[in-house]
Each structure stands twice: as C-alpha cells, then as structure tokens.
Amino acid sequence: MKILMSGFILSCLMFTGCTKVNSEFDCPAPNGGSCKRMDQVYDLINGEGGVTQESLAVAPNRNPLVMEGRPGDPLRYGEGVMRVWIAPYEDTEGSYHQASQVYSVVQKGHWIQNPPRAFK
C-alpha cells in the first residue's frame, strides 16, 4: 500500500511540474492587440466559432483587378484578405524569431453581373 501511495504522490508531483506557473510567458498584447492561440486564429480565419463577416474587419474591396467592363459583361470581385501579425519571440532554446506576417483569404472572390444600360 505504501508503494502505491508513494507512486501516486510522485506522479502528482511530476504532473504539477508540467503546469504553467510562470506568467513570464503570457502574451503582453502590445499596441492594443489581442493574444490568441494558433488554433483560435485558425478557427477565425476559417470562419468557425460563430465568427460573422462583420467581425472579421475586412477592408472594403479596393482591388485594382476589378475593372469597369462594358454593360452586360461579368466582372470579377476580388478576395478579402486578412493580415495576421506574429510578434517577435524567443523560443525555449534561446533562438530569436523576428516579427512576421501571414496573409489569409477570409472572403472569396466572386463574379458580378454588370447590368446592361437602358437605351434612351
């Protein structure tokens, strides 16, 4: 019984050593940003978790590839893109990783039918 109890206590102590007890690694959220785990960012990018189009903060499309066409011609409306900033950090091995950016498509492009003009 003593062996079983000491094994249980030892395993509890080992598991508590794996928990996060240092707030040094918490995200400081500089410049009013927000901190999210990568799986949360992935869910936001892919539209999971109840995210609506309004909450994605996609800028209005000012895509230069959308051209004025002739009346009645279809037009291509470009994608909405979200930029994700990854803050600089130092990993557990002491290597420094510079800030980087990842661009992700959050709104797919689609076709628009240019209405024909009425004849006068």
Automatic annotation (TrEMBL):
Keywords: Plasmid. It comes from the Bacteria. PROSITE patterns: PROKAR_LIPOPROTEIN. It holds the Pfam family TraV. InterPro entries: T4SS_TraV (IPR014118). NCBIfam families: TraV. This is Putative Type IV conjugative transfer system protein TraV. The lineage of its organism: Bacteria, Pseudomonadati, Pseudomonadota, Gammaproteobacteria, Legionellales.
